[in-house]
From TrEMBL:
<feature type="region of interest" description="Disordered">
    <location>
        <begin position="1"/>
        <end position="22"/>
    </location>
</feature>
<dbReference type="InterPro" id="IPR005269">
    <property type="entry name" value="LOG"/>
</dbReference>
<protein>
    <recommendedName>
        <fullName>Cytokinin riboside 5'-monophosphate phosphoribohydrolase</fullName>
        <ecNumber>3.2.2.n1</ecNumber>
    </recommendedName>
</protein>
<dbReference type="InterPro" id="IPR031100">
    <property type="entry name" value="LOG_fam"/>
</dbReference>
<comment type="similarity">
    <text>Belongs to the LOG family.</text>
</comment>
<feature type="compositionally biased region" description="Basic and acidic residues">
    <location>
        <begin position="1"/>
        <end position="11"/>
    </location>
</feature>
<keyword id="KW-0378">Hydrolase</keyword>
<dbReference type="InterPro" id="IPR052341">
    <property type="entry name" value="LOG_family_nucleotidases"/>
</dbReference>
<dbReference type="Pfam" id="PF03641">
    <property type="entry name" value="Lysine_decarbox"/>
</dbReference>
<keyword id="KW-0203">Cytokinin biosynthesis</keyword>
Length: 255
């Protein structure tokens, strides 16, 4: 509840006048709002800028966490498959992602993707085709067309960081197929959290060795040699061209 009190201060210094209390927040002088919060609550019209202010945004963020936790809490063992939305259905990596999604689902694991086209669609399709749990964690973007039709459990997020939290919380391993900035962001997020022990250790499988070779040459030859990172755990990152090897790396960790 917001109210006004007299500000009695015997210390030397300028008198800022009254103190305005709004819950735990105090305001004095020019910081006191012109309109009372309670009056605004009961008003039927007026300015709606408050809908876009940070305190209201916090409630939307909180709601996304609640929705995500509620939808995924009983998912069971799961693995995430990341990769480009631009991968065509004729690309060999599309077929590989479809196989990996299907094989994980056959082994009783849910398959979590970003829910979009390309690699994500392929992995969801593989899981759905064998009757598995095919999960899509979408994101609101102007160019996105929504979740692909192979998702049988889906949720769309407004905030990237909430979505990434769901990937980390409910995945016990990830397979990273070729992709762009979004894929790299997700991969380095997992690497950072695992390397700093902010998340449990999990297998991180990079599929298509040739695609990732240049990146890891730079990490080894430049980043590590200049002392910017410590040695990568050799059991943490697995690079392979074999869909079966990728799936087995995930399943070994689950066991």
């Amino acid at each position: 509840m917001a109210d006004m009190v007299d500000n009695h201060n015997d210390d030397e210094g300028p008198d800022l006048g009254r103190t305005y209390h709004s819950g735990p927040v105090i305001m004095r002088g020019p910081m006191i709002p012109e309109a009372d919060a309670n009056a605004g609550l009961l008003s039927s019209g007026g300015d709606t800028d408050w809908l876009h202010m940070d305190p209201w945004r916090v409630l939307r963020i909180q709601a996304e966490f609640v929705d995500g936790f509620g939808a995924l809490a009983e998912l069971g063992p799961a693995a995430a498959i990341f990769g480009s939305a631009r991968t065509s259905r004729e690309d060999p990596n599309y077929a590989a992602a479809r196989k990996m999604g299907g094989d994980l689902a056959k082994a009783g694991m849910a398959v979590i993707t970003g829910g979009g086209p390309g690699i994500m669609e392929a992995a969801n399709k593989g899981a759905a085709e064998v009757g598995g749990k095919s999960v899509g964690l979408g994101i609101e973007l102007p160019m996105e067309q929504g979740l692909n039709r192979w998702v049988n459990l889906g949720i769309t997020f407004r905030y990237f960081f909430v979505r990434k939290m769901m990937f980390m919380k409910y995945s016990s391993g990830i397979i990273v197929c070729p992709g762009g900035f979004g894929t790299l962001d997700e991969m380095f997020e997992v690497l950072t959290l695992v390397q700093t022990h902010k998340a449990p250790s999990m297998p991180i499988v990079l599929f298509d060795r040739a695609y990732w070779q240049g990146l890891f040459d730079w990490i080894s030859d430049t980043v590590k040699q200049r002392g910017m990172i410590s040695e990568l755990d050799p059991d943490l990152v697995i690079r392979t061209d074999d869909p079966d090897e990728a799936v087995q790396a995930i399943l070994r960790h689950r066991a």
